[in-house]
Amino acid sequence: MPNTPQVGQLIDQALAEDLGQGDVTTEALVTDDQQGKASITAKAKGVIAGTEVAKQVFLKVDPQLKVDILVDDGLEVRPKNVIARIEGKCASILKAERVALNFLQHLSGIASETARYVEAVKGLSVQITDTRKTTPGLRALEKYAVAVGGGKNHRMHLGDGILIKDNHLVALRSQESNMKGIITRARQETTNTLRIEIDV
């Protein structure tokens, strides 16, 4: 899993969004000294991704929580499989659980869908790859989930290789450039280490 400052910031933002005004229900009903245990259980068949992010959410809310991951990212689960167990203050578990599950469910959904397509083309000389059509701010995690599901990561950003698309060709139409001329120009204007692809 990408263990970067950006992921830490995403967790902070998600918790601030959910807990910024406090958890009035938990604070009203659950005493601070009440201890408890919780488990994260699969409700459907799929491929797990994002367990470490979920763990970091719990520990960000309360570093004293004990979080045991029982299913590694990339493994398939079936309904009722226990993915993780959490132990510690009930209030802390309740405050963290929705944000942790949001990350885990979203990333596992991507990994599961990717695995479905990878399985569908098994034996063929093709690869399932991702695009930059990602949720703003979540690109690193979503591309990680694609890789966990058996897919291949394409460009992480616009500086990660040249991809000549139909919109580029429309923009260049006024220059009356042919495809060979466009590719030659792209090679001249960039370093030789960048790959050039065409998507039309």
Q: Can you offer a commentary on this structure?
A:
It is a single chain. With 200 residues, the chain is α+β, with helices and mostly antiparallel strands. The chain has two domains: 5-120, Quinolinate phosphoribosyl transferase, N-terminal domain (Aldehyde Oxidoreductase, domain 3); 161-200, no CATH class. Helices cover 46% and strands 16% of the residues. The chain is built from seven helices and seven strands, in the order ααββαβββααβααβ. The strands form three sheets. It has a three-stranded antiparallel beta sheet with strand order 1-5-3, covered by helices on one side. A two-stranded antiparallel sheet has the order 2-4. The longest helix has 31 residues, at 90-120. The model has no long low-confidence stretch (mean pLDDT 89).
